[in-house]
C-alpha cells in the first residue's frame, strides 16, 4: 500500500504540529507560533537535513520543477507558500 513510508511519516508529523498549533492559537496560547516553528524546524534540520540528507535549498526547487520531478524540496516550498 505505502511504497515509501517516508512521505507518510513526513506529512503526518507536519500536519500533527500544524493542527496542534491551530488549536493553541484558538486557545490563545501566547507563544503557539514560535513553539510550532521550533518543532517543525528541528524536524527539518535534524531528520531531513542531517539524518536523511535531503537537500531543501531553493535552487533544488527550481531544478526539480524544470525537470518535472516532484521531490521533497518542492513539497517543502509549496507547503510553506
Quick synopsis:
With 81 residues, the protein is mostly helical.
Describe the structure.
- The chain is an all-alpha fold and 81 residues long.
- The protein is built from four helices and no strands.
- α1 (5-26) packs antiparallel against α2 (32-51).
- It starts with a helix and ends with a helix.
Q: What is the structural class?
A: mainly alpha
Strand content: under 5%
Radius of gyration (Å): 14 Å
Biggest sheet character: none
- What is the averaged pLDDT score? 76
Secondary-structure element pattern, one letter each: HHHH
- Overall 3D shape: elongated
The count of strands amounts to 0
Oligomer: single chain
End-to-end separation: 29 Å
**Estimated helix fraction:** over 70%
Total count of helical runs of at least 4 residues: 4
Low-confidence stretches: none
Amino acid at each position: 500500500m505505502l511504497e515509501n513510508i517516508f512521505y507518510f511519516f513526513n506529512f503526518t508529523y507536519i500536519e500533527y504540529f500544524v493542527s496542534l498549533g491551530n488549536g493553541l492559537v484558538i486557545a490563545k496560547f501566547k507563544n503557539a507560533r514560535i513553539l510550532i516553528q521550533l518543532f517543525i524546524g528541528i524536524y527539518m534540520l535534524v531528520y531531513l537535513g542531517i539524518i536523511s540528507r535531503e537537500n531543501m535549498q531553493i535552487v533544488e526547487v527550481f531544478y526539480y520543477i524544470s525537470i518535472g520531478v516532484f521531490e521533497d524540496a518542492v513539497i517543502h516550498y509549496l507547503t510553506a507558500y
